[in-house]
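Weekly structure sync, notes
Attendees: PL (lead), two postdocs, one rotation student
Agenda item 3: pending single-chain targets
PL asked that the sequence for the first pending target be pasted directly into the notes so everyone works from the same version. It is reproduced below exactly as submitted, 231 residues in total.
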Amino acid sequence: MILCQNRGQYPGRLIAVEGLDGSGKSTQIYLLKRWLEMKGLKVFFTEWNSSLLVKKATSKGKKRQLLTPTTFSLIHCTDFADRYERQILPLIKAGYLVLCDRYIYTAFARDAVRGCSRTWLEYLYGFACHPDITLFFNTPLQVALERILGGRPQLKYHEAGMDLGLSADPYESFRIFQGKIYDEYLALQKRYGFIEIDGTASIEAQQQRVRELIAAEIDLPRYRSRTIGIG
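Predicted structure, written out during the meeting:
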């Protein structure tokens, strides 16, 4: 299954970040967003699982532990489709730099681990454009786990992958779950050409690398707002 290709198709550009929980991707895309805004560029930011359309249904399903892997996948796809139709695609067409904190590859990795067919997932998200740039924050599993577990007194049921029956212990389940997701990301990196960022480097070093990559790949002055600071 070949996704809709965005490269050169629309005036805007689509930039996504992917990686394990605790890989540092959210910090880096936020810093990138602020840097681009300070340059006076047209920027829009969106994050995974943030559509108001299905937020209540998702929350209720998770709390009551009612979601099967397929239902879980379909709800997240509905969330993404809503944001894609209302925000992502219109703004790419309007000439914006659209930044995505996780994209369809998050679903490809997590839902595949939950048992969904990889082919089915690719067809399910077949309407979505492939990003112009996908940054993969490659962080060793143990490092990512330490970052997450160090700041979480308690893991959520689905976050820990408890619905998969991997272990009765939430922390061990989380470790196994994240390990399987990491393996999926490595396969996706090869297939879709993710640009790898060293997730063990300092925040400053990672951000410098990210900025250099974006500046080299995209003609940034082209996306300057008429009024500086509006994005």
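Discussion points:
- The first strand starts at residue 4 and ends at 5.
- The radius of gyration is 18 Å.
Action: rotation student to compare against the earlier draft before next sync.
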